[in-house]
Structures are given as structure tokens and as C-alpha cells.
Amino acid sequence: MIVMTTVSSGQAIGMVGVGRMGLSICARLVQQGFGVVATDVRPDARAAVVAAGGDWAGSVVQVAAHAEVVISVLPGPLEVCAICEQLPAALSSGSTWIDMSTATPAVAAEIARSAAVHHVRTLEAPVGGGPAEAREGQLLAFVGGSAEDLRAQRGVLDALTDRVLHVGAAGSGYAMKLLVNLLWFGQAIANAEVLSLAVRAGIDPETVRYAVQQSAAASRFMEQDAPALMRGENLTSFSLARCVEELSGVLNMGREHDVPLALGERVTEIYIEALKHFGDVDGELLAARRVTEQARIEFGTSGADPHSLATAPAVTPAPSV
Q1: If you write DSSP's letter for every residue of 126-190 in order, what string do you get?
Q2: Could you tell me which of 102, 106, 65 has the C-alpha nearest to residue 87?
Q3: Do residues 156 and 98 make contact, with C-beta atoms less than 8 angstroms apart?
Q4: Residue among 64, 76, 57, 58 at smallest CA distance from 118
Q5: Hey, which of 75, 90, 226, 271 has its CA 20 to 30 A from 66?
Q6: pTM, rounded to two decimals
Q7: Closest C-alpha to 201, from 318, 319, 295
Q8: What are phi and psi of 115, to 5 degrees?
Q9: What is the pLDDT of residues 255-303, one digit of tens each?
């Protein structure tokens, strides 16, 4: 028997999927005064859910029986499709399913078809940010669905995010997240090439970062993510295989809409090659790491490897005037 937590908001939230992101979202919801009942295909996730203040359910059906709003946070399109029939059928008429996974417009169509049969409202809200942002309520949500349904669930989304962007009808939220990810993956490769070439040309990589950020090529990647690459970190909150899966989803969108994605094709090839080289491990920056390795540049815990920078001049960036 599941005993629901009594909460000040008067609203119980069901959760399907409590991996790294899902568990952080679960903990945030509890912190914000929501009762949460959660499930996962991994029974051993129960202890973490209970420790976060949530209640455990043995199945998707049990979650649906205890909540009129259910959030799913699943690894990808296949996992979302696996509950497309089961979850709407178990929810009461008028309930809402919010999927915060990264999926595709085709998945949105499947969700909409099943939800309509059972009179369930749906929103897709894939997010930008990782577990740390989820715990702090600082995610960015790309929402696809009706404005009316978004207004009804704004309180839930506001508890998890600091920015909610309604980008259009069902399917557009998934599409927007994939487009953003394509740009990020492309920037990872481009910046890895720039930093590798700079080191080979004898320019200090920190000087390169500073100069780029003053130029028309300034980017959040160079500001926020390139330092991790230079420290030897690989951003291990997401797997390399999932990166390839998302890039493949973008390429499928391009083919569907007859839009050539030459750069996207090449970025995908590089990520596939990295996956073959490193294996199915966690690390969004591993494709960029592969680029630096092929350039014989080793970035480590203190920036670039000293041997790689032997000829680099010591340059202190001048303040902008």
C-alpha cells in the first residue's frame, strides 16, 4: 500500500523514471511542498526515492492511481514509447502527463494519439540543465502543447525551472531541445578544434578563451564548458550513446523536412567515431576529447598538458577598454 504525503500545495505528483535527472526532480518537488509517488524499472531506486522524501510505487499503473499529474523523466524515445499506451490508460480522465524526457516529434504524435483515446492532457517539457540545476529549480523547459494545459501546470513547472519557454504545439518542445543539442554538440567539436590548433600554434588556450569571448564568436560553450574540457573533465551526467541517439533524431528531422544538414551529418560521424573509440560510457565531451587526442593535445587537470604548451608564450589577457 502506498501512503501519500500530505502537502501544503494539495497536489500529488506522480513520477516515472528516477535516474540522475528524475531523482533530482523528485527531490526538488518534495522540497517545494509537493507529495511525490515514483516508480522506475530499477527496483533498487526505491531507497533513493524514500530518502528524498517521496513514496514508492511498484508500477506505472500504481503511480497513475495516486496522482492526477504525472511527470516522466526517461532516457530517450524508446523508453517514452514503452509507456505511451500504459500510462494514459491508467490515468483518470482529465489528468495530465508531462514528459520531461528528450524525445522526438514522432514520439509526441504517439503520445497525443494514446492520450486522446483516454481523455488525458499532455505536455512535453524537455529541459536544459543537469541534476544540479534540477535540485536548485534552475532548469530551462522547452514546452510543447496547448497554452491552456501549460497554464494549468505552470505551478509545477515553475517549481522546477527558472525559465519556461512555450515554443509551440505538441512536438515542438522535443524538436527545440534536439535543435539546441545539435548546436551544442557542434560547438563542442568546433571549440575542441580551435583550442587544439591554438595550442599547436603556440597560443595559450586561456588567452584563446578570453579573446574569443570578446569577439563575434563568443559563446556560452567557450565560457562555461571549454574549461571542463581543458581540465580533463568529460561532463559525465549524460552518456555518449545518448548523444548519438539525439543527433540521429535531428538528422531524421532533417530528412523528414527535406533540409540538408551537412554539418550535422559530420558532427554525428565524429560522435559515432568517439562512441566506437571510448565505448558506451558517460561523457558529453568525449567526442571533443577525441578531437584533441587526434591533434595530439592532452588537456589535463590544470589545463593543457605542459609538454603540449612548451612553446606557448605566457600571455595575460588585457582588460577590455
Answers
A1: -EES-HHHHHHT-EEEEEES-HHHHHHTHHHHHHHEEEEEEEESTTHHHHHHHHHHHHHHHHHHH
A2: 65
A3: yes
A4: 64
A5: 75
A6: 0.89
A7: 295
A8: -65, -40
A9: 999 999 999 999 999 999 999 999 999 999 999 999 999 999 999 743 3
